[in-house]
């Protein structure tokens, strides 16, 4: 089982498929969950505090907007843990944690720069493409070390 | 606290005509897991110790594997931090994200059914080749000529 | 402050949660008895927005922001005012912020403020802006007042100077003007001077209005009838003194610490910006210039009018670099009048570049505050914008006059 960074990082489908096919998705929700459950933080709604954009300076310089650096403070540690990655190119609108195009450009670059096994695929627009999407992801995940699932492999 | 003792939430999304959220709830009660369950318009949100939540999520998925999709969720069920009743009305961005993905789920279901049946379709990338500038020029000339 | 009617502020923003300042926005809102709300919409509204609004952007949260603006204008949400906020230094967001602001202004009656934040933005920074926004939404009746009645006083406790006026039946009958040292002592002194000039005592004052940075402190201490931020009172005071209470106007106040550019309709602020990146765009820079030139601040303006700013290269984007170029030009033998002129021009240029882009400049343009008396400043504004600039009488007392005017609405209450 390896840790797979997914983009969009809040995607239900990617998170589900990675988990379903036997690996650990590295998703934004985990980081948000940690923030929200940290006692003593009081910065609703998601407990990102003004300290986070400062931590984000590790990934982007001060002239990069605070919203980018705040997001990077969450995504950065996930990227560091990533042993593989799946990037969906030009996904249909994805909001919130993935709502900033500049952050998205930066994290896509950083995943590629890590040189871990990486699957990049287009966002499906038809039924056939959606099916191919699932099969490709499964194929990729089954090829990673320690894959556990895949019906016919059992 | 070990990782297994972390408290996490998972969102169980169901799009099915023959499994209902209430069926999933019954299953969870039967499993006697020490977790909190909240029914939502998409399915359920469960919260509890990571180990328990993961165990239950996996049991739930097995009820209808191609029609149940699961992801971790940052915000606990019913959190006033995110609930729109206490957060000024309009849906939060994540909700719209969810709407978009929910609409696509039937397509993924078909692919998962194929896998279940052991089918492995040939995958071809059918990206149409880029139009060359020469070809484009030919087309323009031809079209202009025809319209004259 | 007494509890007032709840004002619903629709927030159209991108990045505030991830900059860690959403709580600051909500805290500032609750301090002015307002509630932040988010317009309701569907995913289809968001998908259609680029086409219907006409602006294509890469960031989904900016699309959401545009769709929320549309939902608001279409009346799908019950709101009283609008806060538009995006990350400072994001070009894409700045375009959207500006176009949404214009769109709301042209298609609705909502008072709007637009702000770009960093992780350092605090509730205190936002307070004055939200106070002005909620006042405009809440106190239309008070702001409709066009005449000062009875005997009232106004105090403007500014960052650099404290001003006070006594007004009687639409006339200024006493003024006081002192540098701000200790907030309370300076306010007392300014008010005493104004009362002395008017020949009255404290008990003759029928109502008191206070404004400026020190307003809460002096308001409590003097038991003021009206405690109001400077955006509202300056707008009101400016159109009142300029004799232009009806119709459109633009009010610019280059203050000691920050600047205000306000687009006014019938005396009520519509859009406004507050701030300036650096003190290089403020009255402080002019004060330093006059010290460097060895002239009194009151003489700087006359000197500047005689000079040619084109002869001196000066950029006061940052006050430190601004002073450096001032020193350099003097060392190179520039004439003091040219340096004075360049300093005025540079300050005005900063206001133009940083603030007037966010406010529709409508004539007449009324300049107020102490800096408007430095003749080189309104002249530079005129040269830059190519429009007539009005400096009303008592322009340095603008806040105090506006406060005294509005305070007369509290007589007999």
List keywords for this structure.
heterotrimer, A: 154 residues, alpha/beta, Rossmann fold, B: 148 residues, alpha+beta, 4 helices
In short:
The complex is a heterotrimer of chains A (154), B (148) and C (413). Chain A has 154 residues and is α/β, with parallel strands linked by helices.
Can you give a write-up of this model?
The complex is a heterotrimer of chains A (154), B (148) and C (413). Chain A has helices spanning 12-20, 28-36, 51-55, 66-81, 101-113, 127-142, and strands spanning 3-7, 24-26, 84-89, 118-122. Chain A is globular, with a radius of gyration of 16 Å. Chain A contains six helices and four strands, in the order E-H-E-H-H-H-E-H-E-H. Chain A has a four-stranded parallel sheet with strand order 2-1-3-4, sandwiched between helices. Chain A has a single domain (3-147), classed as Rossmann fold, CATH 3.40.50. Chain A is of the alpha/beta class. With 148 residues, chain B is α+β, with helices and mostly antiparallel strands. Chain B has a single domain, classed as Alpha-Beta Plaits (2-Layer Sandwich), CATH 3.30.70. Chain B has a four-stranded antiparallel sheet with strand order 2-3-1-4, with helices on one face. In chain B, a hairpin with a 3-residue loop joins strand 2 and strand 3 (43-49). The mean pLDDT of chain B is 86. Chain C has 413 residues and is α/β, with parallel strands linked by helices. Chain C folds into three domains: 7-138, Rossmann fold (3-Layer(aba) Sandwich); 146-231 and 398-410, ATPase, nucleotide binding domain (Nucleotidyltransferase, domain 5); 244-391, Nucleotidyltransferase, domain 5. Chain C is 44% helix and 20% strand. Chain C is built from 15 helices and 14 strands. A nine-stranded mixed sheet of chain C has the order 2-1-3-4-12-11-10-13-14, sandwiched between helices. The mean pLDDT of chain C is 91. Classes of the chains: A alpha/beta (154), B alpha+beta (148), C alpha/beta (413). Chains A and B meet through helix 1, helix 2 and helix 6 of A and strand 1, strand 4 and helix 3 of B.
């Amino acid at each position: 089982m390896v840790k797979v960074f997914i983009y969009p990082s809040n995607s239900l489908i990617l998170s589900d498929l990675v988990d379903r096919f036997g690996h650990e998705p590295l998703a934004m929700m985990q980081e948000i969950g940690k923030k929200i459950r940290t006692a003593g933080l009081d910065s609703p709604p998601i407990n990102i505090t003004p300290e986070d954009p400062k931590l984000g300076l590790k990934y982007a310089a001060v002239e990069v907007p605070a919203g980018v650096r705040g997001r990077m403070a969450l995504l950065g540690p996930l990227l560091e843990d990533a042993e593989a990655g799946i990037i969906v190119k030009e996904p249909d609108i994805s909001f919130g944690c993935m709502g900033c195009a500049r952050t998205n450009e930066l994290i896509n670059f950083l995943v590629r720069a890590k040189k871990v096994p990486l699957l990049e695929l287009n966002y499906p627009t038809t039924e056939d493409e959606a099916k191919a999407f699932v099969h490709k992801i499964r194929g990729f995940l089954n090829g990673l070390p320690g894959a556990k699932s895949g019906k016919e492999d059992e | 606290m070990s990782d297994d003792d972390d408290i996490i939430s998972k969102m169980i999304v169901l799009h099915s005509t023959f499994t209902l959220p209430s069926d999933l709830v019954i299953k969870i009660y039967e499993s006697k897991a020490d977790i909190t369950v909240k029914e939502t318009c998409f399915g359920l949100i469960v919260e509890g110790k990571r180990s328990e939540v993961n165990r239950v999520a996996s049991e739930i998925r097995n009820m209808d594997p191609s029609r149940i999709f699961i992801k971790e969720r940052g915000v606990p069920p019913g959190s006033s931090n995110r609930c729109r009743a206490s957060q000024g009305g309009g849906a939060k961005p994540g909700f719209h994200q969810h709407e978009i993905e929910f609409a696509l789920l039937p397509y993924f279901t078909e692919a998962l059914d194929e896998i279940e049946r052991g089918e492995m379709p040939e995958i071809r990338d059918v990206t149409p080749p880029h139009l060359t500038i020469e070809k484009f020029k030919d087309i323009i000339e031809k079209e202009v000529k025809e319209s004259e | 402050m007494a509890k007032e009617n709840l004002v619903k502020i629709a927030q159209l923003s991108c990045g505030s949660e991830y900059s860690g300042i959403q709580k600051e926005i909500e805290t500032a809102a609750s301090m002015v008895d307002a509630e932040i709300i988010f317009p309701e919409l569907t995913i289809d509204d968001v998908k259609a927005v680029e086409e219907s609004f006409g602006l294509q952007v890469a960031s989904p949260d900016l699309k959401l922001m545009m769709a929320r603006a549309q939902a608001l204008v279409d009346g799908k949400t019950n709101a009283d005012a609008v806060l538009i906020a995006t990350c400072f230094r994001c070009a894409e967001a700045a375009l959207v912020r500006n176009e949404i602001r214009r769109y709301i202004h042209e298609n609705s009656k909502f008072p709007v403020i637009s702000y770009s934040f960093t992780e350092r933005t605090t509730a205190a920074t936002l307070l004055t802006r939200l106070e002005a926004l909620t006042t405009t939404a809440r106190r239309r009746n008070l702001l409709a007042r066009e005449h000062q009645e009875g005997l009232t006083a106004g105090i403007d406790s500014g960052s650099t100077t404290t001003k006070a006026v006594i007004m009687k039946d639409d006339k200024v009958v006493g003024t006081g003007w002192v540098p701000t040292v200790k907030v309370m002592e300076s306010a007392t002194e300014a008010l005493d001077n104004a009362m002395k000039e008017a020949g009255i005592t404290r008990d003759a004052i029928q109502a008191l209005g206070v404004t400026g940075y020190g307003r809460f402190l002096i308001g409590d201490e003097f038991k003021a009838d009206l405690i109001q931020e400077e955006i509202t009172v300056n707008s009101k005071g400016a159109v009142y003194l300029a004799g232009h209470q009806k119709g459109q106007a633009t009010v610019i106040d280059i203050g000691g610490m920050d600047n205000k550019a306000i687009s006014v309709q019938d005396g009520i602020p519509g859009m406004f910006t507050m701030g300036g990146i650096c003190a290089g765009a403020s009255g402080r820079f002019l004060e330093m210039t006059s010290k460097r030139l060895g002239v009194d601040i009151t003489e700087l303006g006359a000197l500047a009018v005689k000079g040619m700013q084109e002869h001196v290269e000066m950029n006061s984007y940052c006050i430190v670099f601004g002073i450096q170029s001032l020193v350099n030009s003097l060392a190179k033998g520039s004439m003091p009048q040219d340096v004075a002129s360049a300093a005025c021009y540079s300050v005005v240029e900063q206001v133009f570049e940083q603030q007037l882009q966010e406010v529709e400049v409508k004539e007449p343009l009324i300049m107020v505050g102490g800096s408007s008396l430095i003749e080189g400043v309104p002249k530079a504004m005129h040269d830059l914008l190519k429009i007539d600039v009005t400096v009303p009488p008592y322009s340095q007392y603008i806040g105090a006059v506006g406060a005294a005017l509005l305070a007369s609405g509290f007589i007999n209450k």
